[in-house]
Design a protein that fits this description.
Layout: H1 11-22, H2 28-35, H3 39-57, H4 65-100
Length: about 100
Amino acid sequence: MSKHHRRRHTAEQKADLLRQHLADKKPVSEICTEAGIQPSLFYTWQKNLLAGAPAVFSNRRTPNREKDLEEQVSQLKVKVARKDGIIAEVTEEYVKLKNELGEA
């Protein structure tokens, strides 16, 4: 029994295949045969492309992903610092109790 491995196509590869059909008017069957993909996969990519098209023409600015990630990192750093403080406090109480009970 042979195992089939899924091939990963980059965004550039997908865009090139879709461009061949949409701009160059190349038949889907020919593109799929050459690329070794199923037509259903090609049409899924085309559907996704067309679903995302309104964002290209939107006048609204897209959120800055880097800024969002930096904000998320800052929030996580605050959260970790808070947890570190709690751990230090609990550890200090533990050591104090251990010393009081003479176990040290």
